[in-house]
Amino acid sequence: QVQLQESGPGLLKPSETLSLTCTVSGASISSYDWTWVRQPPGKGLEWIGDLYSGGATKLSPSLTSRVTLSLDTSKSQFSLRLRSVTAADSAVYYCARLNMGYDSTGFYHFFDSWGQGTLVTVSS
Amino acid sequence: ENVLTQSPGTLSLSPGERATLSCRSSQSISGRLLTWYQQKLGQPPRLLIYGGSTRATGIPDRFSAGGSGTVFTLTISRLEPEDFAVYHCQQYGSPLTFGGGTKVEIK
User: Which pLDDT score, from 0 to 100, does residue A104 have?
Assistant: First the structure.
C-alpha cells in the first residue's frame, strides 16, 4: 500500500521560497505520476500541479510563474518549490498519487492516495 | 477556467436519511472527468468516485454519482455515522479545479 509523507518548514516569511518534499513508500515513484494540492484553512482544495514520471509537469496557470516541481527517484521523493510567498499561500499542502490513463470506457484522471498534509504559514 | 459550484454549502441530515449533493460546472464537461472526494476533519481527502460514477476501491455501494454536461450529483442512499464529512467535486480540465465543498453534518 502506497504511503506519502510531506515534509518541510511550517513557517515562512513573506517573499521567501517554500520548499516541500513528499516521500513515497510502498510503490515505485518511477512508475506513477504525482501531484500537489493545497487547502487554505477552512477553505476548499486548490490544485497546484501534476508531475509525471518522466519529469514533465503541468501547472496551475495561477501559480506557474512561481512553482517548480521535481522528482528525485534515487530518494523516492518529489518536491515543490514556491517562490515569493505571501500570506495567501498559507495552507495545508498535500502530495498525492495521480492515476491517469485510458481504459475500455475512456480517459480517467484522479488522485487515489494522499499524504496527511503539512501546514505552511506565511507570516512576518 | 471551469468553475465548479457545489450546493448546498451545508446539508443537515440524520443517520439513515438520503443525501443528495450537487456540483454544477460553468462549462460542459464529460462525466468521466468528474471526481468526488470525501474529507473528514483533520484528514486528507479520500477518493470516493472517479470517472463520474465508478466507486473507488472499498467505497460502499450506498455512494453513487452521475450526471453529464454541467450538472453532477453525489448521492448517499442511507447516511451512516462515518459519512458525515465534507465532499468535494473535481473536474479534469485546463486547469483542473475543485468545487468549494459540501459539508454533510448531523442534524
Answer: 86
Average pLDDT of the segment spanning B5-16: 96
Nearest chain B CA: its distance from A85 CA (Å): 21
Average the pLDDT over A99-109 and give the result: 88
Please report the DSSP string for B60-96 in residue order: -TTEEEEEEEEEEEEEESS--GGG-SEEEEEE-SSS-
Provide the 3-class DSSP secondary structure of residue A22: strand
Q: How far is the CA of A38 from the CAs of A41, B16, B90, in angstroms?
A: 10, 33, 14
The Cα B30–Cα B102 span in angstroms is 22
> Rounded to the nearest 5°, which phi and psi values hold at B72?
-130, 150
**Cα A62 from Cα A21, distance rounded (Å):** 21
Question: Which own/partner contact pairs does A48-52 have at CB distance under 8 Å and 24+ positions apart?
Answer: A48/A80, A48/A82, A48/A93, A50/A98, A50/B96, A51/A78
Burial label for B104, CB within 10 Å (0-12, 13-18, 19+), is: buried
Would the CB atoms of A106 and B32 count as touching at under 8 Å? yes
pLDDT digits (tens, 9 = 90+) for B27-59: 999 889 999 999 999 999 999 999 999 999 999
Where in A1-122 does DSSP place strands (E)? 3-7, 11-12, 18-25, 33-39, 46-51, 57-59, 67-72, 77-82, 91-103, 106-114, 118-122
Q: Residue A111 and residue B98: Cβ atoms within 8 Å?
A: no
Chain A residues 14-53 within an 8 A CB cutoff of chain B: 37, 43-47, 50
